[in-house]
Write a structure and sequence with these properties.
Elements (H helix, E strand, L loop, with lengths): L5 H17 L10 H15 L1 H6 L2 H26 L10 E15 L9 E14 L3 E17 L2 E16 L4 E17 L4 E22 L2 E24 L11 E17 L16 E17 L5 E15 L9 E14 L2 E12 L4 E12 L2
Length: about 375
């Protein structure tokens, strides 16, 4: 799978999103706008599509993994220059990351439009800390429109922007930059068990980096512009089971099987630095990382009026296509998570979650702590 044709992939996912959103898109018995929104939100929430749409953890894991591979490659090449006997297995990447996010859908009432239309607004702050490699912060804002052609589907198109600041620890340096681009989402509830979703992002990044190197008794500043594109694709299937399908499940609990194919592609534009040199990127100017992942999520409501929800998840993924596997070369990663959610009212909740990612040989791991709020109106 290659991203050689942006137009081809953009057209494919627009067509796919449109097709998905029209499933079950036939006319339904007329209800008030508020009632239609309520039924649509209930269907999306029960199927797991609202959580899938608001979550950025899948993209976050791929981006974090790509950065870990890039830093590991730089540290390995830097170490080999000083110690030719350095082995690939001596290089490790261990990361702590933190996320705070709010996602909201705000209804828009337009004369003549009888199906729900929402303004989507997301704000997120993420921190990443990898010892001896890089410490960074990434801020993101999404604004878009979400349209529900039926009570069982949606399609959304919007624009997103990111700002990233990094402290480079493997050298004395820093980098910062901004990215923006379109985001396309679609989802459909196929039946009481199955639902499907897709997402496509296309970002262009523009920034600069500055490295200070010693030159005898003085220091030399070397700077350069950085420009790249980032494409992300997600195709996922969710199977939801409660006591209607599995009568042995406890009352108020739900079991979900989740599988996805995710692909990240990075394309760098060569740029000269202030010395007139063109530095090489780890893994070249075209970098790719594709994974398939599957696993189970169990959740249960409890408390007065069932206003609390506890959840746990086990996942495994395989990197089926990548050119970023040096020096860390392990295609299998396992992850688990636990979460606690406070339910305020329908469409409004706040969740704290811990996630642990670790590859099979233990060379790469990440602890992620999240505070995620969803406040729909």
């Amino acid at each position: 799978m290659q991203f050689s044709s942006r137009r081809r992939f953009t057209g494919f996912f627009i067509s796919l999103a449109g097709t998905m959103s029209l499933i079950y898109g036939g006319p339904s018995q007329a209800q008030s706008p508020a009632a239609e929104r309520g039924m649509w939100m209930a269907n999306m929430g029960q199927a797991g599509l609202r959580r899938s749409y608001s979550s950025g953890s899948d993209l976050g894991e791929l981006v974090n993994r790509a950065v870990a591979y890039q830093m590991s490659n730089r540290l390995y090449e830097q170490g080999r220059a000083e110690n030719p006997d350095l082995r690939r297995r001596d290089i490790n990447s261990h990361v702590d990351s933190y996320v705070a996010q709010n996602d909201s859908l705000i209804p828009l009432e337009i004369s003549g439009l009888d199906r729900p239309l929402f303004l989507r607004a997301l704000g997120r702050v993420a921190w990443r800390d990898e010892e001896n490699a890089v410490k960074s912060r990434n801020d993101r804002i999404d604004l878009g429109l979400l349209y529900a052609p039926s009570r069982y589907s949606f399609v959304s198109l919007g624009l997103a922007g990111e700002n990233t600041d990094s402290d480079l620890r493997f050298v004395n340096g820093s980098s910062d930059g901004r990215a923006w681009g379109p985001r396309l989402d679609a989802g459909v509830v196929y039946n009481d068990t199955w639902s499907f979703a897709t997402r496509y992002d296309y970002f262009t990044y523009s920034g600069e980096s500055l490295v200070t190197v010693p030159t005898g008794d003085t220091f030399l500043d070397i700077d350069r512009d950085v420009k790249l594109r980032r494409e992300y694709v997600n195709l996922e299937a969710i199977a939801r089971y409660d006591r209607r399908q599995l009568d042995w499940l406890p009352e108020g609990s739900q079991l979900r099987w989740h599988s996805a194919l995710q692909y990240l592609a990075l394309g760098y534009s060569p740029r000269e630095n202030s010395l007139g040199q063109t530095p090489e990127e780890p893994f070249g100017n075209s970098q790719r990382l594709g994974i398939v992942r599957t696993g189970l999520n169990f959740s249960a409501t409890f408390g007065e009026n069932d206003n609390w929800n506890a959840s746990g998840e086990l996942m495994i993924d395989h990197e089926f296509d990548t050119n970023m596997n040096h020096p860390i070369n392990d295609s299998i990663t396992g992850s688990w998570s636990i979460g606690l959610t406070r339910l305020f009212q329908p469409g409004q909740r706040m969740m704290v979650e811990y996630q642990r990612y670790e590859n099979r040989r233990g060379q790469r791991s990440r602890n992620n702590f999240s505070l995620i709020a969803v406040f729909d109106f």
